Amino acid sequence: MTAAQRVTFREVFGVAEFRALWTGELLSIFGDQLARVALSVLVFNSTRSATLTGLTYALTFAPSLLGGIFLTGFADRFPRRTVMLTVDLMRGALILLVAIPGLPFWVLCVLVGCVSLLNPPFKAAQLALLPQVLTGDRFVVGMAIRSMTVQSAQLAGFAGGGLLLITLEPHFALVIDTVTFLASAAFLRFGLKARAAATSADKRKSFFSTIGSGGKLVFANSGLRTLVMFTWLMGFLPVYEGIAAPYVAASGGGTTAIGLLLAADPLGSVIGAFIYSKWVPAHVRPRLIGPLSGLTAVPLMLCLLQPGPIVSIVLFVISGGLGTVCLMQATASLTLAVPDENRAQAMGLSNTGLTTFMGISPLIGGVLADQVTAQTTVGIFGVAGLALTIPLALLWQRSLTNQPERWVDSEAARAEQA
C-alpha cells in the first residue's frame, strides 16, 4: 500500500458506527471535565476547604481502580453496547443527584465515587468493541483520531468549564454533564449495531470466577505482559503535569506558563498521533514501541540541565507526542492480540493501571520536588523511564521474533503489500 492508498481520516469517519462511538465519547469527556471544574467550585464555595475540594476531585478518579478490578468483566459477559448504554444512563442519573442543592458532603462524595467506579466497564467495552467496528488499518487510524480528539475535548472541557462557570451556577453545569451522558447513550443506542456478548451463555463462568481472569491471561504471556507494562509506563512518565506549578516557579516562569505547560502534552499528543497514523506503515508500527518508549524519556532527562519554561514546554510537547504514540500502539497491539471473549477485561486491566500510575506519578513527583528542584525531579523520572524501557524493549523484541504475526493486523499488512 502506498502513502496515497493508506487509510485516511475521512475513510474512518465514513464508518457510521465509529462516528457514533466517537461522538458519544467526545460528549462524555467534555461533560466530565466541565463537571470536575463545577464540583471543585461547588465544594470550595460550600466548605471553604482546599483539602475537601482536593478530596472531591480525587474521587472523580480514585474509585476507578476498584471498577477496573471488579466490573470490567461485564463487558465480556454481556453485549458491549448494552453495557455502555447502561453505564451512561447510570452515570447521568448519579450526576443529576449530585446537582441537587444542599446535599450533605458525604452523600456528594459517595455519588461522585460511584460515577468514577462505573468508568472502567464503559471504557473496557468501548475499547473491546472498536476492533469490530474498525477492521484492518482503520483500527489504528481510529485510535489516533480518538487520541487527538480526547485530548482536545479535555482541554475544551477545562477551558469551557472555567468560562461557563463565570455565568452559570455550578449545579446547572452538573445538569449539563447529565445531558452529555444522555446524548452519548442516544448515539450508542441508535448508532451501533446490536451484537451478542463475547462470551456465550453456555461458556460463561460465574461472576466471581471471572474476576482476575483478564490479569491471568495477560500476565501469563510475555508479549501481552510487556505491552501492559509499556502502557503503564506511559502513565508514569508525564510527572510534569502533576507538579506544573512548582515546576514553573522553579524555572522562572509566570502564571501563564503553567497553562502552557499543561497544554504541552495534549498538543504533542495531537501532533504525534496525526504524523504516526498518516505516514508510518502498519507492518512497522509494533516494532517501534520499544524505541518510542525510550525516546519519550529522553526529553525528560534533559530537564536535569535545569531548562527555563520555554525550553521545558518544547521538551514536554516532544515527550507528550512520543508517549502518546507509544501508548496508542501498545494499546492497539494488545487489543488485537487478546481473544475477543477476554478482550474487555484485558483492556480494563491495562486502562485501570494506566489511570492508577497517572495518579501515583504526581504523588511521588511532589515528594521528590520538595527535596530537589522540580526540573531535577522530572529528569529523574526520565532516567527511570529509560532504565525501565531497556528490559521491556528486549522482552518485546523477543515476542516479535517468536510470534511476528500475532502483533500485526494481517488485513492491514496485506493491504500495504497489494
Topology (SSEs and partners):
Layout: H1 9-13, H2 16-47, H3 50-59, H4 64-70, H5 74-77, H6 80-98, H7 105-133, H8 138-167, H9 170-191, H10 207-210, H11 213-219, H12 222-236, H13 244-251, H14 255-279, H15 289-301, H16 309-337, H17 340-369, H18 374-402, H19 410-417
Helix pairs in contact: 2-3, 2-7, 2-8, 2-9, 4-7, 4-17, 6-7, 6-9, 7-17, 8-14, 8-16, 11-17, 12-16, 12-17, 12-18, 13-14, 14-16, 15-16, 15-18, 17-18
How would you describe what is shown here?
This protein has 418 residues and is mainly alpha-helical. It folds into two domains: 1-193, Up-down Bundle (Growth Hormone, Chain: A); 209-418, MFS general substrate transporter like domains (Growth Hormone, Chain: A), CATH 1.20.1250.20. The protein contains 19 helices and no strands. The protein has helices spanning 9-13, 16-47, 50-59, 64-70, 74-77, 80-98, 105-133, 138-167, 170-191, 207-210, 213-219, 222-236, 244-251, 255-279, 289-301, 309-337, 340-369, 374-402, 410-417. Helix 4 (64-70) crosses helix 7 and helix 13 packs across helix 14 (255-279). The termini are close together.
